[in-house]
Amino acid sequence: MDRRSFLKTTSLTLAAATLAAPNILRAQAKRFEGVTLNINGYGGDYDRILKESVAKPLEDQTGLRVVYTPSTASAAVARIIASPDNPPFDLVMCDSPNMPDLIKAGAITPTNLGPDVIGRIVPSVREFGDYGIPMSVASMIVTYNKTLVKSPLTSFIDLARPDLEGRVAMFNLENSGGVLYFLALAEAGGGNVDNVDPAFEALRKIKPNITAVTPSTVNLLQLFEQEEAWAGAFWDGRVFSMQKAGKPMALVPPKEGLYALRSYVSPVKGTKHPDAVKAYLEQLVTGPFITELSRFFGYVPTTNIQLPPDVAASVIPYGKGGLESLRAINWEKVAAYRGDWLSRFNREMR
Amino acid sequence: MDKNTAVLTLKNLNKTYDNTTAVDSVSLDVVKGELLCLLGPSGCGKTTTLRMVAGFVKPTSGSVLIQGSDVTNQAPYRRDTGMVFQSYALFPHMTVAQNIAFGLQNIGFAAKAQTERVHEMLQLVELEHLSKRFPAELSGGQQQRVALARALAMNPAVLLLDEPFSNLDAQLRVRLREDLRALLKRIRITTLFVTHDQEEALMFADRVVVMRSGRVEQVGSPAEIYETPATRFVAEFIGWCSLFEGVVDGQGVFTTGKSIRLPLDHKPGPATVIVRPEYVKPAEALGSGPVFEARVTSNTYYGALCRLRLDVSGQEVLMEAHYPYGHGPSIGDRIEIRIDPKGARRLPAH
Amino acid sequence: MRNKALLGLRGQGEASTAWMWQIAPTVMLLLFFFILPLAGVVRTSFYPGTRSFGAEGFSFEQYLKVILDPFYRSVLIDTIVDGLIVSMVCLVIGFPVGYSLARLPPKQRRWRLILVILPLTLSLVVIVFGWIVILGRGGLVNQLLVSIGAIDRPIRLPYNRTAVLLILVQQFLPYMILSVMSVCSKIDPVLEHAAANLRANRFTTFRRVIVPLAAPGIVSGMILVFILTVSAFVTPRLVGGGNVQMLGSIIYEQVIVALNWPLGGALAMVLLIVTSIVISLANLLAAKKFARHRSSANAK
Ligand SMILES: Nc1ncnc2c1ncn2[C@@H]1O[C@H](COP(=O)(O)OP(=O)(O)OP(=O)(O)O)[C@@H](O)[C@H]1O
Ligand SMILES: [Mg+2]
User: Fold this and answer.
1) Is B19 near ligand 1, meaning CB less than 6 Å away?
2) Architecture of domain C62-299
3) Residues 52-91 of chain A whose Cβ lies under 8 A from any Cβ of chain C
4) What CATH number labels B3-235?
5) From CA C255, how far away is CA C234, in angstroms rounded?
6) pTM of the predicted model, to two decimals?
7) Pairing status of strand A133-144 against strand A231-235
8) pLDDT of residue A1
């Protein structure tokens, strides 16, 4: 029996049991009947897995309805900050770079989950203390088309190699993925978050090779799939699924180190259903969601859950240290500098 | 008719739309300075014929000759015709003077010559004082005169007028009609003119072409058309008339089954005879002619005269009579009438 | 109702409220959807620093940054030039289409009109990715060029200014077509016959009769396309490949990604002002050129 059909059976049994139970019990079980939680969505398979392994079981047990509205995380964050008195969402899903502003603007609240739940989360993944539940980790890695690029690439700066002229594609700094390789280039060149000149220096070397920079993940995927680009920096999860689909793309943890961001889900300040929000977060951490995410995307789990052997075998390798090997990033400073970096990137890469 | 002086010649002109024949083998000659009128009921193909002359409609077969040269396949803007449209078609964004100068510019008039010609035309139609007005600031009659001046300025070989009076009120129509006829005669321009108003055709034209569903029914001077219609259709379309079906005997007497007897010196045989209402008079008003007893079935007062429908032993007879100081007989009255035998016309057999 | 409103203007108590009630919805609509948000943007653009939440004070910092920085200046100029190019190209392609649609009988016009409007119902992102596929090395355009022998090997077509402008033209062409069509369908076709009858060839008729009468539609269509182009941000970001900078995408990045609303607001205000100036100039030019026609319309 695979996990999904197991889930189905369980929820069916549960539903049947609920129906058969005496009235009082049923009233207690359906404690969120009529309550709807609004959450922004990431779209695609991520939302599908959320619906199947968080929203669906929760609705079956408690009657809670969850509505996902796909948009970019940045746009959702901007909307929440813009309307503090009447937030459009009860929970917000966003990435590490968005968190400092949400916290500073007072737009999200600490998660307030019990230690039994919080304790399951890998400590090094929690970048913002009590704020946000990390759902997954995505890293920037080096990728290249193994049939078209003869000698292997091992680092981001390898993208400046002369044989790649006009064949490199990567994110610009509008996409947070761009910020990751950018920081990697800065620190590898002796700089840091306060001094990114080495990163721009490296980019100048890579520039002649660049066929396109883009803020869009789908766009970048297209560039690699159409072989318009042969090499670049990309999300580990996306390269993983290209490999699964049979594309000869290499997935190389770069010599500069692993720079990653976390995707968090956080309660929005001013939600009318704090109890439902809490129940949602608990289900997310303790339910099948983390496992299903690893199964589909190959993400390393953010909790201490024991993955089934088949899933564990296909998770993206992070080397010996696992999540502990990820470089720490000062996201507050990134948020403060991002606007300037964007302008400078735009004018230098134009 | 002298072929050499024909300014406009139509030879076997045909126009067929998908399944309707709009114009059917029309052949015509219009001589220099002549006012020729196309007359017929709505939809009989008058406008289509005019448009084929101007070149806006391409004939299905047949040819159009202007001053002896075949222009059937010539573009409209090369043809030497001047058209006054039913809606006048003045350019709304040009002043009166600019409207008139428009055509002159297209045939290469120098600026000074243009001004002179425009002025001359405005004088001709007596609109000098309105030269700077825009069409929207003119009355219907003034617009018509601008349209005429605009066409005449080009000194075209043939002037084409499509129902030029139909947008004017009755009084203005009568006055402008007379003025226009005088003007056209004065400048001796060859004119093809379209109307469905028989009165207009009779008073305006030198020669009238009566059309019926695309075909020419009769061509002749207004008097010929009125007095000696070639067909029953023409007789009925042009004015009022009584229609008698009967036979002519060997003695030259025409009788209908319904007791109308008139002397008629035509060859014996079945005959259709028409009598215009002005040849029927109250018995006392006409010195000679057979007397009939009639019952009045309707009497319409027209001021100077009355139009009566009479019943002569079951045969309808129409009469136009002058009854001084009154309205004449009432419905149901029995009166005696005479029919002037010289006014009885036998229609040609077909 | 109307009379009442007029009376209201003369100061009769009860009627004057009626008049106010009549315009109230329009005023509210404008206030809520235009003036208030705009006022918000204006206020934000005068904050110092890089964040608007928690910000205080009043400063010209952002505007100075925008005006003194040659990068923003050159992007602004590029954006305006792009707007002019796209609206000109849309006019050149859109006019014949709009005009011929206007001259078709309604029955034949219907499905062609649907074809014109259809792209407007598609998501912009779908259109843009569709174009990237079509322009890709394995895409339709490259295959065609190779098969007719224009090029030996597929070439890179997207990710440059030409591609961005091409896709913007495709997106905004329907607006131009509709604008031209609506004005041309009001031009009586008999005027063209009249012109031909006055010895004007097709070109003269077009230049001296159709264009002046279609001018309002041409101007409004061009202004519409211009505004849409200078404020575009999806297409330049996705198709520009980083080489093509337009102000819309820079504003988007500052507002959405960097959350630097003061700078984004200032950039937006500068774009708004420059766009308004360009539009006013266009209107003035058009008004001058077709002043006589307009004056007659006013006199009527
Ligand atoms: N473009 C066209 N397509 C199809 N049929 C047409 C077209 N133009 C005219 N017809 C048909 O040809 C016939 C003649 O039309 P035409 O306009 O010449 O009539 P008309 O004598 O001018 O009538 P009216 O006095 O009403 O103006 C009509 O039956 C009309 O329906
Ligand atoms: Mg007609």
Assistant:
1) no
2) Orthogonal Bundle (1.10)
3) 72, 74-75, 77-78, 81
4) 3.40.50.300
5) 14
6) 0.80
7) antiparallel
8) 40
How crowded is residue C218: how many other Cβ atoms within 10 Å of its Cβ?
A: 22
Nearest CA to ligand 1 atom 20: B43
Three-state DSSP class for A176?
helix
The topology (CATH level 3) of B241-346 is OB fold (Dihydrolipoamide Acetyltransferase, E2P) (2.40.50)
Verify B-C touch: 3 or more CB pairs within 8 A.
yes
Q: CA distances (Å), B189 to each of B141, B154, B196, in order?
A: 21, 12, 22
Q: Tell me, which fold does domain A138-260+327-349 have in CATH? A: D-Maltodextrin-Binding Protein; domain 2 (3.40.190)
Give the residue among C190, C183, C191, C200 at the shortest CA–CA distance from C286: C183
CA angle B278, B281, B285 (to 5 degrees): 125
Instruction: At B66, give phi and psi (nearest 5°).
Output: -115, 125
Ligand nearest to the CA of B43: 1
Q: Which residues of B touch C203 (CB under 8 A)?
A: none
Residue of C199, C207, C295 for testing the chain B interface, max B β-carbons within 10 Å: C199
pLDDT digits (tens, 9 = 90+) for C13-29: 455 677 777 788 888 88
Interface residue A241 vs chain C (CB under 8 A): no
Alpha carbons within 13 A on the beta-carbon side of A48: 5
Q: Give residue-wise pLDDT tens across range A245-262.
A: 999 999 999 999 999 999
Q: How far is CA C178 from the centre of its chain?
A: 13
Chain C partners within 8 Å of B81 (Cβ): 197
Rounded to a whole number of angstroms, the distance from the CA of C297 to the nearest CA of chain B is 8
Would you state the torsion angle of the CA atoms of residues C241, C245, C249, C253, taken in this order, to the nearest 10 degrees?
80
| Closest CA relative to residue C167, chosen from C236, C113, C114 | C236
Other CB atoms within 10 Å distance of the CB of residue A167: 22
Cα B37 to ligand 1 centre (Å): 17
For ligand 2, the distance from its centroid to the CA atom of residue B87, given in whole angstroms, is 11
H helix runs in chain B, sequence order: 46-54, 96-106, 111-124, 140-153, 170-186, 198-204, 222-227, 232-237
The arrangement of secondary structure in A16-137+261-318, i.e. its CATH architecture, is 3-Layer(aba) Sandwich (3.40)
- Tell me whether residues C193 and B76 touch, CB distance under 8 A: yes
Give the neighbours of chain C: at least 3 Cβ pairs within 8 Å: A, B
Residue B48 CB less than 6 A away from ligand 1: yes
Residues of C in contact with B94 (CB under 8 A): 292
Which has the closest alpha carbon to A158: A262, A228, A250, A247? A250
Q: What are phi and psi of C56, to 5 degrees?
A: -140, 165
Percent helix, strand and coil across chain B, each to the nearest 5: 30, 35, 35
Q: Which two tokens stand for residue C220?
A: 């409004």
ipTM: 0.82
Could you tell me if the CB of B56 is within 6 A of ligand 1? no
Q: Break chain B into its structural domains and give their ranges.
A: 3-235, 241-346
pLDDT of residue A6: 43
The answer to whether the A16-137+261-318 and A138-260+327-349 domains have the same CATH topology is: yes
Task: Provide, as residue numbers in chain A, all residues whose Cβ is less than 8 Å from the Cβ of C267.
Answer: none
For residue C223, give the DSSP letter: H
Any B CB within 8 A of C213 CB: yes
Nearest to B197 by CA among B39, B86, B83: B39
Domain assignments of chain C as residue spans, ordered by start: 62-299
Question: What does the pLDDT look like over B83-126, one tens digit per residue?
Answer: 999 899 999 999 999 999 999 999 999 999 999 999 999 998 88
Query: Chain B residue with minimal CA distance to C189?
Result: B89
